[in-house]
Amino acid sequence: MLTGRVVPLDRDLATTAAHVGIVKRLALADAMIYATAYVHDAILWTKDADFEGLPHVELRRRQ
Question: Under a CB-based contact definition with an 8 Å cutoff, are residues 16 and 23 in contact?
Answer without folding.
Answer: no
